[in-house]
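The records we work with from here on pair a chain with its fold. These numbers are not coordinates but entries in a learned vocabulary of local backbone shapes. To see the layout at work, look at the sequence and tokens printed below:
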Amino acid sequence: MKTYSNEALRTVALQTIGLNEPRQTIKPTLAEMNDMVNRLGAVQIDTLQMVHRAQYLTLWSRLGNYDTSLFDMLCGDSSDHTLYEGWFHCACYIPLSEYRYEMVRQRAARDNGHHWYSDWSKEEKNRQKMADVLQLIREQGEITTASLEGEKTKFATWWDWRPEKMALEHLWTYGDLMIARRDKFRKVYDLTEKLLPTYVDVTEPTEEERNRHWIVDGVKRLGVCSPKTAGDYTHMPRGKVHPIVKQLLKDGSLQEIIGLTSTGAETLLIHPENIDLLEKAEDGQLKATRTTFLNPFDNLWWSLGRDELFWGFKQRLEAYTPAAKRIYGYYCFPILHKGKLIGRFDPKLDRKQGILNILSFYLEPGISLSELDLAEIAIVFRDFMAFHNAKEIVFHRSSPAEIGKRLMDAIK
């Protein structure tokens, strides 16, 4: 069997996930944003906002500077909305075309309880709380947790939620409610029957059909991955994935290839539609040319361990690591440059002053940057600044020590 180069593997992985397109010189349209989310299958939502939140950054990495209010229109209750908020890899914005596959999870939660707090929904007073909240929304319309009066005591969970919040989250998990929009990042809940467009397919698949769809679709979007990570795109338990992958290989829905990784030649998975891309990458007809920055929740990281397997690079989110134990910083962005992950930086936006602070900047061992490399990275930094309405950038610490000054000079 033919063995594909590591460079070809990386190129395909970047191409299929939208990280190898030429950088746009004009702001993307609403349709282009929608097309990109459909290409990705979902974008992860996160609360951290040292700079923009993750859901905005994932699109920026691919499309460049854009108006985030347009993206909000795709996710909200406007006539343009084509995405909904649900559970995919984690909490994500997901194309409405995928809604029917979430119905399997909704039914399981309703029948068996939510796996994080299943005991709560078994108590009669809590079931009544859910019924009361649902009736209130039927009568009064959309609602937020803050607008609900009720008990002041909180439920003893990691989230420390009030019973009213628990009721809303259960009803959302069950599919009775959807998130109409976010108001200053607070969820606004309303009835699914009101928010879900009538054109959306609500034919519920079996769990087996859902699992096959998720694995085939995930491998297609990942481009190339190891068999054990075939279900990682939707966080499927790996114990369930192996027998399904065997069947998908048998019926030709997926194929095996041999590729060179950081640990040597390995058997990998690929979707049949991506074979042509792989051949072009191997022949040099398709090359990785894009320079961009990637947030810690970017879809590229959704195949766990592939950063090390393909790039020899360990992606780290250290926001939840004690400060004294952090190696690189609180919220580091890896730097993608022409198919390689060459370094990372830890940004913090001073919104009042309009200053983008780069608290630390690190190049990977053995990486040196030419003036042309610096110029290309500087272009991306300028776009990153524009995206955040930053007028100034300051590098506080860098390794090598001189690289921060060289970059600041190139950005000016």
The first helix runs from residue 6 to 16. Residues 316-412 form a domain with the Aminopeptidase fold (CATH 3.40.630.30).
